[in-house]
Write a structure and sequence with these properties.
By secondary structure, this protein is an all-beta fold. The protein is 0% helix and 50% strand. It has no helices and eleven strands. The strands form two sheets. Strands 2, 4, 5, 6, 9, 10 and 11 form a seven-stranded mixed beta sheet that branches. A four-stranded antiparallel beta sheet has the order 1-3-8-7, with no helix packed on it. The termini are far apart.
Length: 127
């Protein structure tokens, strides 16, 4: 059984930094495609960043490119999202997602394509 657990959210002023962590247990960690999504109140869940460590592949949404960095520690079964230069519009609940299937094209951007999810962690950026 796969378990996904995020941590590291909090409250930060604009321009600040936070690091989110996500532990994935069950199965072989390097077999999973991993991603961060976020959901602000009244909005749909949106793609933030993706990593497939076995292929050394990462992708980012245009809104976070250059400010956020996704990475993994395969020995710890852990994924991270280092967020810098945070903006008030980054305020949302951030979710970690995992799935073992191969993603073609940009299908990794659709949250419905991921089977395993964490409970979410709140990130609030004040202006």
């Amino acid at each position: 059984q796969v378990h996904v657990l995020e941590s590291g959210g909090g409250f930060v002023q604009a321009g600040g930094s936070l690091r989110l962590s996500c532990v994935v247990t069950g199965g072989t960690f390097t077999n999973y495609a991993l991603a961060w999504f976020r959901q602000a109140p009244g909005r749909q869940r949106e793609f933030v960043a993706y990593v497939r460590s076995i292929y050394r592949t990462t992708y980012y949404s245009d809104s976070v490119k250059g400010r956020f960095t996704i990475s993994t520690d395969n020995e710890k079964n852990e994924m991270y999202l280092q967020m810098s230069s945070l903006k008030p519009e980054d305020t949302a609940v951030y979710y970690c997602a995992a799935d073992p299937k191969i993603f073609w094209g940009d299908t990794y951007r659709a949250p419905t394509n991921f089977d395993y999810w964490g409970q979410g962690t709140q990130v609030t950026v004040s202006s």
